[in-house]
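Thread: quick sanity check before group meeting

JM: Hey all, I'm pulling together slides for Thursday and realized we never actually wrote out the predicted structure for the chain we discussed last week. Dropping the sequence here so it's in one place. If anyone has concerns about the input, flag it before I start.
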Amino acid sequence: MDWLSHISQINWLAVLLAFVSSMVIGFIWYMPAVLGRRWMQAIGKTEDDLKNIEGGAGIWVPMMVAAALTSILLAVLISALEINTFVAGGFFALVAAVIFRAGGHVIHNGFAGRPSVVTVIDSGHDIVAMTIAGAIIGAVQ
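JM (edit): ok, ran it. Output follows.
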C-alpha cells in the first residue's frame, strides 16, 4: 500500500478547499432555482418533504464525511501520481468521477428504476464537484 504513504505528503489546506468547494457546488446545484426543482420532481418529493426528512440535520453528517473522504483520497492519489497542476488534477478527478461516481449512479439508478434525469443531475453534480476538487488539489499540491 505504497500509495497510502502519501497521506503524510498531502496539503491539508488543499483538502479543506476541495471539501468546501464540493459543499458550495452541491448547495448551488440542488437549489430549486438551479436543478433542485427538477430533481425533486424526478424523485417525487417537495421542498417540504425534504425539510421534514427523518434524521433532520443528522442526514448531513454522512454526506459531509463522504465528501471529506473523497477530498482526502483525491489528494492521496494526486500526490502518489505526482500530479501538480490545476489542469492535470482536474482531468484526473474528471476521469475518476465519470468512471466511479457517474458509473455508480447509472448502475444503481437503472436497477432501482429511477428516472434518467435523476442520474443525469446527480452524476453531473458529482462530475463537476470532483473535477473542481481535483483541480484545486492539483494546483496546491
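AS: nice. Residues 86-112 form the longest helix (27 residues). The mean pLDDT is 93.
JM: adding both to the slides.
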